Amino acid sequence: MPFGSEPIESGTALALSGGGFRAVMFHVGSCIRLNQSGVLAGLKRISSVSGGSIVAGVLAVNWSKLTNDGNGKFTNLEDQFVSPLRTFCGSTLDTWSIIAGALNPFKTASEEVVDKYRAALGLGVKLKDLSDEGPRFVFNSTNLATGSSFRFSKPYCGNYRIGLIEDHAFDVSFAVGCSSAFPPVLSPVDVELDPTVFTKTEGADLYDQIDFRRKLQLADGGVYDNLGLETVWGRYDTILASDAGKPFELNASISAMWPTLLLQVLNIGMTQALALRKRFLIHQFQSGVSKGAYYGIATNIADYGLADGIQVSPQKIAELSNIRTRLDSFSEKEQCELINWGYAVTDAALRSKTQWKALPEGGVKLPYPDFPLNA
């Protein structure tokens, strides 16, 4: 089958955005609510970018360890998923990796990050060895040479312009490391390959230019698609998009210094590309082409019109959506509030926009009630 031409399937796919450790905690809260609804265990695909890929990586390597209660809900999600990620996000990853990479002539900052994923989160499992049960995990990075996505998954890795690799030995930590290699300090990740490992696929217009297959220069998947949508829409009839990406920062007085102007121009371009993807996805929902829901860290939960939903103050939403997107230590308060917010907005989106309208057993309750969101 040509690369990227899978037919539309009946089932649900989840897209997890980038956004550093902030996104990790937000997506953890979302997954807790998806688990309560029975959605998580039934997913067909999880497509992820950057911080979302850290979440997906932990799910991927622990999927076979999750215990299903027979009703489509995992009973040990806290031990196998939530707790490891909370511990990990309580440490600083980016600064120490940058320093270590600068001091070590034999290892880059991105390689230091990959090693941390292996050691701290157990992501050293080969993609080929992931469980055949459960969803297909797709970790998205950006191919800087082709200006498009390079994806890692169990059956194949590749880029539609240069072909795919079916016989690969990449592990989950490397895939997550490439997906979260935020420029300029953690990317590019240089990957030297035997060009013959690629298979030419339909539409691979750069396959015959061997240099594109000889060396890959990969960066954070959010550079190309910060929602991770490209590998899910048009493939499954139901899509859930969890977005913890950075909102555009308004500034009434932009500095005339060229570095500031350049950054602002780049931010506008990336923001508009993301906005177009969101508009297209929401249009698909509204037109009936696809089912599902979009929910974001900056979403006004009142817009869902759910009378019995969790109340979250606009001030708290603004506060949480502006938390830094770095890979540095998050306090207990930051973690718990972000998890609670991801849980709350996922609940509102599920029950107002999808077929999963039932309340969880015992009602909707924040995972961490000591950290309310209406203060």
Textual characterization of the structure:
The chain is α/β, with parallel strands linked by helices and 375 residues long. The chain has 11 helices and 10 strands. Strand 1 (9-16), helix 1 (20-37) and strand 2 (45-49) form a beta-alpha-beta unit. The longest helix is centred in the last third of the chain and has 30 residues, at 258-287. It is globular and about 60 Å long. The model has no long low-confidence stretch (mean pLDDT 89).
Task: Describe how the helices and strands are arranged.
Elements lengths: L8 E8 L3 H18 L7 E5 L1 H12 L14 H12 L5 H10 L5 H13 L14 E8 L4 E5 L4 E3 L3 E3 L6 H8 L9 E4 L18 H4 E6 L1 H4 L10 E8 L14 H30 L3 E6 L17 H8 L10 H22 L22
Parallel strand pairs: 1-2, 1-9, 2-3, 9-10
Antiparallel strand pairs: 3-4, 3-8, 4-5, 5-6, 7-8
Count of β-strands: 10
Mean pLDDT comes to: 89
Compute the gyration radius: what is it? 20 Å
Share of helical residues:
25-40%
Instruction: State the helix count.
Output: 11
Oligomer class: single chain
Question: What separation lies between the terminal Cα atoms?
Answer: 53 Å
Q: Poorly predicted ranges (pLDDT <50, ≥5 residues)? A: none
- Class based on secondary structure composition and strand pairing: alpha/beta
Q: Which descriptor suits the 3D outline?
A: globular
The major sheet is characterized as: 10 strands, mixed
Strand content: 5-15%
What is the H/E order? EHEHHHHEEEEHEHEHEHEHH
